[in-house]
Amino acid sequence: MSAKKYSIMKEIQLTSRAIEDTSKRIEALEDKLNSESIPEKKKNAIKQELIEARKLLETHEAQLDHLEIHNKSTFMLCVGLVFLVFLFYMIYILFANDTSFMDY
After folding, report:
1. DSSP tag of 97
2. pLDDT by residue (tens digit) across 66-79?
3. What is the C-alpha end-to-end distance of the chain, expressed in Å?
4. What mean pLDDT value characterizes the chain?
5. In a domain, 15, yes or no
6. Domain range holding 12?
7. Is 66 part of any domain?
8. Which of 3, 71, 92, 102 is deepest in the core (most CB within 10 A)?
9. Nearest-angstrom CA–CA distance, 4 and 14
10. Is the confidence at residue 49, as pLDDT, over 60?
11. Residue 46, Cα to own-chain centre: how many angstroms?
12. With the CA atoms of 37, 43, 45 and 57 taken in that order, what torsion angle do they form, in degrees rounded to the nearest 10?
């Protein structure tokens, strides 16, 4: 598998989709497990797969939490940068601008 660089939003979308897929897989496995027509050996294999799917779901949820925190911090950094640019522009306008238009 090649390591591709995605944006944070794309990673969040991919992880959310993986969570949905894993949740559906868990539901399907639980339905199979509740079926009475399955032999005991097959039920044990399904139980093991169900345990692995739940671990995978926990991993995906942890990854999604991490990505959302990273996305939030990136957003706050951008907001701070925009605020600083606006602040410097207002200071520039206040001190460096020609105020001759105020002389009526």
Report:
1. S
2. 999 999 999 999 99
3. 71
4. 88
5. yes
6. 8-98
7. yes
8. 71
9. 12
10. yes
11. 29
12. 110
Three-state SS annotation for 18-40: HHHHHHHHHHHHHHHHHCCCCCH
| pLDDT of 103 above 60 | no
> What gap in Å lies between CA 43 and CA 41, rounded to an integer?
5
71-75: list long-range contacts, CB under 8 Å, 24+ apart: 71/8, 71/9, 71/12, 74/8
Backbone angles phi, psi at 97, to 5 degrees: -80, 145
pLDDT at 1 exceeding the cut of 70: no
Q: Pick left, alpha or beta for residue 38 (phi over 0 → left; psi -120 to 50 → alpha; otherwise beta).
A: beta
Instruction: Provide the domain count of the chain.
Output: 1
Average pLDDT of span 54-76: 94
47 located within any domain: yes
